[in-house]
Amino acid sequence: MSYVFDTARLQRIAEQRAAEFSRAEPYPHIVIDEFLDPAQARLLAEVFPGPDESNWDHYAAPGIEMKLGCGDETRFPAPIRDAVRDLNSSAFVSILEKLTGIDHLLTDPHLLGGGMHLTRQGGLLGIHSDFNWHTRIHAHRRLNLLVYLTPDWRPEYAGELELWDTGGTRLVRRVEPVFNRAVLFATRSDTFHGHPQPWAAPAGVHRQSIALYYYTSERPEAEKRPAHNTLYKGYNA
After folding, report:
1. Which helix (H) or strand (E) holds 165?
2. CA-to-CA dists, residue 169 to 48, 128, 175, angstroms
């Protein structure tokens, strides 16, 4: 297999489910199970760094954001680095363009805000909309891809991704972070989401994910807003 995903399968999904993505509520999104090759997904979970390793940057704002993250690929285990590169490849970007109808997508070699994410017991991510402008590559953020890598997720662990309406006032959809599930969604100044329910797995079981973001040099006029950082409901939004 040349990539960590089955190219032909994802191409079929892009052709067959594009309308589902564009029509989804509260904003365009899609959930894809068995996203990566199963053996590759298991390998990524096995090599995912634990919280006590030196790979991590710490984010700690009680009630808003409590997680570990790393966007420096030099600190990634080799299989994760390879997977990230595959998900930034021209083959995968072409699939994203077909699925979303967004042309001329750009990848981010700096992985600003993305890469590996890990949440320990009690960690959470408040409802927010993401930064909309990448100052280093000078591009508009258009898509978020989240790939969940916690084996044997259970409902009592919580940590579900919540998609809220564009006013940030009402939960519309809850997505469980099932192992090897991907969620792809549009990124605008009003695409509110997060996992506000604290991670409640036993100590030593972590919410593991890879996050990648995709950009364009332009965006529809109706979506344009002044450049901003993350906007948290109840804090700075």
Report:
1. none
2. 35, 11, 18
Residue 3 in this model has a pLDDT that exceeds 90: yes
Q: Delineate the domains of the chain, giving CATH numbers in brackets.
A: 7-173+182-232 (2.60.120.620)
* CA triple 12-14-19, angle to 5 deg: 120
Query: pLDDT per residue over 120-166, tens digit each?
Result: 999 999 999 999 999 999 999 999 999 999 999 999 999 999 999 99
The token duo for 192 is: 């509110």
Alpha helices in the chain (DSSP H): 7-23, 38-47, 78-87, 90-100
Report yes or no: 36 and 9 within 8 Å, Cβ to Cβ: no
Task: Quote the DSSP letter at residue 158.
Answer: -
Which two three-digit tokens encode residue 220? 């529809």
What lies within 8 Å, CB to CB, of 146 at 6+ separation is 161, 182, 183, 184, 209, 210, 211
Span 189-214, average pLDDT: 97
For the entire predicted model, the pTM comes to 0.97
**pLDDT at position 237, please?**
60
